What does this fold into?
Amino acid sequence: MCAQKIAEKPRPEVAEEPHPMESILRMERIPHIWCPGCGIGTTVTAFAAALEKLEWDLDNVCIVSGIGCTGRVAGYMRLDSFHTTHGRAIPYATGIKLGNPKLKVIVFSGDGDLIAIGGNHFIHAARRNIDLTVICVNNFIYAMTGGQMAPTTPPKGYATTSPYGSFEMPFNIPHLAESCGAVYVARWTALHIRRLTEAIMEALQKPGFSLVEVITPCANYWGRINKLGVGLDLMKFYHQNSVIKHGEDTRNLGIEFQKPIVVGKFVDRERPTYLEAYNKRLAERLGDKFKPYGGEA
Amino acid sequence: MTEIRFAGFGGQGIIRSGIIIGKAVSIFDEKFATMNQSFGPEARGGACSAQIVLSDEQVLYPYVTVPDILVAMSQEAYTTYESELGEGGILIIDADLVRPRSTGAKIRLYTVPATRFAEELGNRIIANVAMLGFFTAVTGVVSLEAMKKTIPSLVPPGFLEMNLKAFDRGYAYGQDVLAGEKAEKTKSPLKRRNYHVR
Amino acid sequence: MKADPKGVLTGSHYLDGDHACAEGALAAGCRFFGGYPITPSTEVAERFAQRCPLVGAIFIQMEDELASLASVIGASWSGLKSMTVTSGPGFSLMMEHVGLAVMTETPLVLADVQRGGPSTGLPTTTGQADMMQARWGSHGDYEIIALSPNSPQETFDFTIKAFNLSEKYRVPVLLMMDECVGHMTEKVIIPAAEEIEIEPRRFYKGPQGKYLPFKPDKDMVPPMVKVGDGYRFHITGLTHDERGYPDMTVDCQEKLVRRLVDKIRKNADDIIEFEEDGVEGADVVVVAYGITSRVTLRAIKLARKEGIKVGILRLIVVWPFPEKRIRELARQVKALVMPEINYGQVVLELDRCACGQAEVVLVPHGGGWVHDPDDILYAIRQAARGKRVGEGIVEYHRKKRG
It folds into this structure.
């Protein structure tokens, strides 16, 4: 109630100028729910900038999210957007893409959503080379629910369900993606806005399963529980400890607690997409009886 | 109503035989035919059986209770199902694959070398179709025309001719047996039961 | 609207229920199938895999049942009529997305070829023990539509009916088959496309700026758009307002969930379908569904030969339940008998609706086979004798021979 009242009042200090990303954000839903110092907003900015630069007809662009802080991204984008169930954004997006292959479908979700509960879908979509761009925001923790351990939490990292520090081996997401068949894999942090925007543009233009991992600060949980300071401190850490190594062997991309983070573009290769392979194989076997599948828009 | 069990082992075309009979009766003879296959651990590789219930009206209970006709194409099938055959029921066995024990049961036993016919025609895989020819001749539950119309839709096109030959061979053999049975019957009606044909 | 001839395999066929389900779907205009093979529903997926490329539809074998139903919801929003099929444990895994489809009012069909359970249970034999899971399986409160065929022909017909209902009410529709019907092969007549009536999707045709994805029409069902049409809509599994935006308030919950429930309850007379025979003047009415309704007919024939006045009410739509009709019947008969292949599920509804007016008799079966008609006959005989009202659900057990 309170927030609504404040929003209704005219705020003269805010200029009448439109928000620069008004055309692509659902302004009626702003302010968003993310905490101060969070890196998701920055990632969304990079994504919005990428779409703007590509000058695509946004009516044909669709975004799907799962559950979690990053899961809320879909709801803020002025696109056909889906906020689905925990972990299932990728198969949901697969259905949309196969239902209408003319669409550009983006999955925008968190590390826990995509790699833990949704891990099986992630590896299979990469294997099939479904034409999707996956933007995975990795903040090392389940933030929306108050800071529980994730499959990306580095050893010695604290979380409410690893109160003595994690001892599990975390997933190296770029390596997982490459091993499973992704055609484009990059990692940047929320600090590298320009490079992140470029990576998202490249990923969006790449036919097949592309992945951009974005290391983002979670000040309220990851930062607080691990006594790493506020959002700005985490950004400073990225500034001092990010090492750009394009083409680095993805086996070397594991992230250790408060150790340097290797960023860059690691994989950019060609492989037939699911539908290309489907159409090729069925045309071979069925000849004239088969019309290449293009979906009915 | 006629209840039929077609039994043997995996790979003999047992289920396919059930489908052929069912389709012939329901599509071309325009009666009701419900076909069910025994699933279960045994359905992969080992013993295998198809149940077909034929009727002039809708089949309500979809399974065989007391079969009127049992076709056994393996010793195991014979051993498993022989005892459920009803009084006056028809038992058809493959001459070379089943050795019947003599029982006092009041059944009509027919023996046909279906697998041998198939081998003579070049492929033992069509033994079931030779058996279907014999079945059609001796049981009379499905018309010859219906079977002839059905088979082309349920066998691989390249093997149709061979299958039809096997069917005809079995059918002719069945007609001969019936003729012999008729002759036998006029001579001595008492010998009808447990009639062995070798 | 008439069916698109591309998917209609007109003619007389000898098909099992699983294959008939796939043909019914293609005839109904289904053009996306995402599924995961599981006995005894696998043959549905196999038929789709073979047929989809020939009719311009797409088949994908997903990595599990969670993914299967998620992909089906996604494809439905892309504008394709979509379905999946499962059995046993797969049905449990799909429950999460039954809820999402209900909440986001996504039309789709989910066929469950029931087998014996719990857990892995009896994978290759029949059961009817998922009926309450069909009704209540996903968390939260909702109403759903479930149909139950008893032959391959009905499986074909009801699959079309299921698609039509799902489009009309924007609700996932469950086709509650069972292993016996799924694996039973019988004649299936597929009519010409122009004889098949299809409910088209209710597409919103208004201006882009005005579209509210969850603003209902008079019948409480909102029109739909699809991805890529420029409406830039938002869909969420969270409690949402008419714009589709999350609004996690008590008021919004009341408005939304009330409507999700009411669009089925208040249209129940239009949705509910059953068949009756010999009900007027009967002492006993057997209420049955699926394969059991067919086996029951044999018991009824035998009972009538004995002079028992017995009728049958056969549920075509099991959910929503024909509450009004059962209340009427309960006032007219001595007993209502329900055979089902479980230890008492739909009979709970029967008992609730009978309100102590008639004796309610359950003929249970643990699964793995259909009822012996003699067991149903025995219960009919016992029920015809007296009226033990107020004792809850009664079971009569025939002494088995040998």
